[in-house]
Amino acid sequence: MKLVKPDLSGLWTKICVEDDMKSFEALYHALGAKLLKFSVYYVSQKEVAEEIVSEVFVKCWHNRKESTHVLNPETYLFVAVKNQSLKHIRKYTNVHLVELEDQQEFQFQDGTDPSKELERKELHLKLDAAIDTLPPQARIVFKLIKENGMKYKEVAEILKISPRTVQTQLFRAITKLRIVLGSYHELDHRKSSSNDLVNLVMFLGIIHYFLVFCRQF
User: Fold this and answer.
1) Is the pLDDT of residue 185 over 60?
2) How many CB atoms lie within 10 A of CB 26?
3) Could you tell me which residue ranges the HTH luxR-type domain spans (predicted)?
4) Domain final residue pick, 91, 106, 136
5) Mind spelling out the 3-state secondary structure of the chain?
6) C-alpha distances in angstroms, 72 versus 4, 87, 154, 168, 181?
7) Which among 214, 72, 73, 217 has a CA at the least distance from the CA of 152?
8) 81 or 206: whose pLDDT is higher?
9) Residue 135 belongs to a domain with what CATH number?
10) Is residue 97 part of a domain?
11) Domain annotation covers residue 122
């Protein structure tokens, strides 16, 4: 059954106008995990990201009466989390971007071979390693679009860049991932893992052309 996306604007209105705590809790459940992962892209520590996200939500509740002008609460919260994460980075300098465990990684068909699961895990590690080679901005753009399904315009508003720059960074990310994963394929002599890598590289190519023609600003 397809999950229905909650009406975030409606929840926001109830929070700001009616002081509705249940709507506030619903908003947190809808966006909390996404915002946590987004913060980790910057600060690298899950515990720190949890504090940042919690602080942002607490401030939103305290300032709710002054926030009725917000039309897109999702973008508003992403920007707030980004700003708080950057503030933390400025305070603590030696920080590197890392990736949390992803429950929505590319999936492949299971086979009857028990070693298939191990090979798939190895492939996911290769994908994570390939993503980690991307420049910071390209990496964040790729993750926001891939994991959160955001449009160019939404990502542009969050990162304070133009939609065209978002598109350019995404294409650069996909191109580099195809190159890196292609090199893994050349070094991998095990047929099953190689086939999965080929599938993934082809999949990234399909994403590239799909986004060129179908993604709306």
Assistant:
1) no
2) 18
3) 149-176
4) 91
5) CCCCCCCHHHHHHHHHHHCCHHHHHHHHHHHHHHHHHHHHHHHCCHHHHHHHHHHHHHHHHHCHHHCCCCCCHHHHHHHHHHHHHHHHHHHCCCCCCCCCCCCCCCCCCCCCCCHHHHHHHHHHHHHHHHHHCCCHHHHHHHHHHHHHCCCHHHHHHHHCCCHHHHHHHHHHHHHHHHHHHHHHHHHCCCHHHHHHHHHHHHHHHHHHHHHHHHCCC
6) 18, 23, 9, 24, 36
7) 217
8) 81
9) 1.10.10.10
10) no
11) yes
Amino acid occupying residue 166? V
* Residue appearing with tokens 């993934």: 200
Please indicate, yes or no, if residue 109 is contained in any of the structural domains.
Answer: no
Question: Is 27 found in the same domain as 73?
Answer: yes
Q: Are 126 and 194 contained in the same domain?
A: yes
Say what the pTM is. Answer: 0.66
- Asked whether residue 102 is assigned to any structural domain, the reply reads no
Which pLDDT value is given to residue 118? 64
